[in-house]
Every structure is written in structure tokens, then in C-alpha cells.
């Protein structure tokens, strides 16, 4: 059994003030520096174009990055967010709409799978002047992997097929655009409901291959899929009348499957588990949803394959009506749940997280 650290952070003020808070966090936790600082400055033309792209589609983030660089004492051109955002991870997630929930509410369940060495393990409450308040886990300090904002809008992410990036093992970007962590955060900070979120995402240049589930307290939900610069939306435009939405790590729409027909076995199994659970005639309750991530793969969604970069690092069950969330750092089989409302703080800044590797089996990575 290995022990790692999870974090809770509260960010507020102007974008630059929040950036300085981020920078001080990195100074106090030097283990974060390799993830956020480049060895060499980005070439000037690329840096200029990236700053311009973020100014247009993610207003405020450049001020935050510069504030962090100032607090660290680092040239902003060496901030890794600029390199990684202009172009990781496995996840399972679903939205359960009022017609399927036993109490008539909207819930979103997700777990996030990767390696502790490649993630922040940091839940943030973010309250920046001029932007909607939100709570979610950070990626590369400034991005978000999921979250819920003050209006109850919830966004969750999973990679769609091979993740896009510039490191070995990732798929080279086919188009120029934003990474998922920038898209998720921008939607949380600028959109009030599912319709606004879909419109905003349609307008963004996106390089990331991703499945996004978006839901709001009214029960409106959408699944957005992007692959190699192509984008498809199901749900918000009436294309689906199912009372739930599910996604894991492979393309789900015919137009995307034509581009990438291959699927990893573990993604197909996790997607089938979600659909089998939600496809039953019975209404589903909160505890039944949590049970899906409290059960180990292949019978549930939680995976302990940490050495192969595929272990559960956090699970969240969002209650959109109550603006509340149940959060577990690490695997729910070995770590406790915490409950907080959007805007509230956890009673700690750091928490010990138990991580235990278990081999996933020879068929886990089988390509179908």
C-alpha cells in the first residue's frame, strides 16, 4: 500500500490574484514544479499565438498564469500550461436525469483514472471576479478535469480514444486548438446551463479527443464528442430522449467511429456496466450510483492499475439540484467520502490517500 497526498485549495480575487495563490502553492509544494515548469522557454511565435488563443476563448487565464509565474519567479514563457494547452487519461462518467432518478433530481457520477505521478490530486473552489464560481479537480494547476458551478451546471471529461499530446504514447494533434482542461474550465466559468455550454464549445477550436458530459439542474444534458478536430453533439438538440447519458474512453457516435473504429476492452466493459445499470426499468438512487465506483473492475468502475497509468485517483457524485457533491480522493475501496456544497471548503488543505496497485489482467488493454 502506497500513500500519496490529496489537496483542497480555495482560489479567489482577480485572475492575477488567484494566479499568485496558485504560484505560492507550487512554491510550498515543490513536487508540482516539474508538472508546471518547462526546462526551456517556448519559442516566441508559438507563445504569442497560444496567449492570443487563450485570450479569445479562455478570458482571464493568461492573467492567472502570469500571476503564478510572478509568485514562482519564473518566466511566463516557461509555464507548461502554455505548451500543453495549445495543441492524458481514462475515466467513466454518466448523467442520470430526473426521469431516471428515484428522487427526481439530476446526478452526475464520474471517476478519474490515471497515475498519481501525472495528476494534481487537488480539488479547488474557484471564485474569480467576473467569472462563475465553481468547484472541481485541477489539471496542470490551471485546468479542470470536471466540476460544477454556482448555477448547478456540471461538466465531466473522459479521453475519447488515444489522448492527444506531445509526449510518447499520445496521438499527435491533427488540428490546432485547446486541450480538454481549458475547455472544461471555460464552460464552468462562463456558462449557466447546458444549452449555453454546447454553444460555447461549438465555437471553440479543440485539439483534444474527448467525451464531455454536460448537465444542468433542469435535467437538460448533452454528450459532446471531439476527435481529430471533428465535433458531434447528442442530447441537447433532442437527438436522444434517454433519461441518462454515459461515456468512457472510446467513440460512441457513428461519425466518430468512422474515424476511429478501435476500442480498448476495458473501456467497452466499463461502458457496458454503466448502460446495464441505468438501462434497467427501476429508478436508481444515490447509493446505487455510488456503489458503481465502490466496486472494483470488471464488476464495477474503479480500477487499481496505477503502475500502468490507469488507477482511480478521484470519484465524484454531483447532486445538481442541491449544488452538492460527494468526493473521494483515490479509490473508494480504500479511502473515505467527503460531502460539501459548491462554494464550501473541505475541513483540510491536505489529506492522506491510500493507493494500492493491482494488476488488471491480460485482457485489460486488448484492442477490439
UniProtKB/TrEMBL annotation:
InterPro entries: C45_proenzyme-like, Ntn_hydrolases_N, Peptidase_C45, Peptidase_C45_hydrolase. Pfam families: AAT. Residues 103-332 form the Peptidase C45 hydrolase domain. This is C45 family peptidase. It comes from Paenibacillus apiarius.
Amino acid at each position: 500500500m502506497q500513500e500519496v497526498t490529496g489537496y483542497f485549495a480555495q482560489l479567489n480575487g482577480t485572475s492575477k490574484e488567484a494566479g499568485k495563490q496558485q504560484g505560492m502553492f507550487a512554491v510550498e509544494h515543490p513536487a508540482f514544479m516539474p508538472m508546471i515548469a518547462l526546462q526551456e522557454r517556448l519559442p516566441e511565435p508559438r507563445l504569442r499565438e497560444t496567449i492570443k488563443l487563450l485570450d479569445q476563448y479562455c478570458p482571464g487565464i493568461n492573467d492567472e498564469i502570469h500571476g503564478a509565474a510572478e509568485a514562482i519567479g519564473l518566466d511566463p514563457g516557461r509555464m507548461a500550461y502554455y505548451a500543453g494547452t495549445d495543441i492524458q487519461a481514462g475515466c467513466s462518467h454518466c448523467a442520470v436525469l430526473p426521469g431516471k432518478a428515484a428522487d427526481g433530481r439530476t446526478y452526475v457520477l464520474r471517476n478519474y483514472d490515471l497515475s498519481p505521478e501525472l495528476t494534481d490530486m487537488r480539488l479547488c473552489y474557484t471564485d474569480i471576479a467576473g467569472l462563475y464560481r465553481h468547484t472541481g479537480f485541477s489539471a496542470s494547476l490551471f485546468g479542470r478535469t470536471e466540476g460544477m458551478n454556482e448555477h448547478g451546471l456540471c461538466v465531466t471529461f473522459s479521453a475519447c480514444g488515444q489522448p492527444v499530446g506531445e509526449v510518447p504514447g499520445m496521438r499527435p494533434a491533427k488540428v490546432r486548438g485547446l486541450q480538454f482542461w481549458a475547455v472544461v474550465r471555460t464552460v464552468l466559468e462562463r456558462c449557466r446551463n447546458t444549452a449555453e455550454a454546447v454553444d460555447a464549445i461549438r465555437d471553440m477550436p479543440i485539439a483534444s479527443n474527448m467525451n464531455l458530459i454536460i448537465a444542468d439542474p433542469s435535467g437538460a444534458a448533452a454528450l459532446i464528442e471531439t476527435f481529430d478536430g471533428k465535433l458531434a453533439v447528442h442530447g441537447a438538440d433532442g437527438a436522444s430522449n434517454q433519461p441518462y447519458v454515459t461515456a468512457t474512453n472510446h467513440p460512441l457516435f457513428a461519425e466518430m467511429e468512422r474515424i476511429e473504429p478501435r476500442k480498448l476492452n476495458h473501456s467497452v466493459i466499463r461502458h457496458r456496466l454503466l448502460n446495464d445499470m441505468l438501462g434497467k426499468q427501476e429508478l436508481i438512487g444515490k447509493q446505487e450510483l455510488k456503489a458503481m465506483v465502490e466496486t472494483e473492475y470488471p464488476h464495477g468502475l474503479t480500477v487499481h492499475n496505477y503502475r500502468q497509468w490507469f488507477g482511480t485517483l478521484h470519484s465524484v457524485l454531483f447532486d445538481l439540484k442541491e449544488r452538492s457533491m460527494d468526493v473521494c480522493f483515490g479509490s473508494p475501496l480504500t479511502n473515505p467520502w467527503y460531502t460539501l456544497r459548491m462554494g464550501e471548503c473541505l475541513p483540510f488543505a491536505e489529506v492522506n490517500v491510500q493507493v494500492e496497485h493491482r494488476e488488471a489482467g491480460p485482457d485489460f488493454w486488448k484492442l477490439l
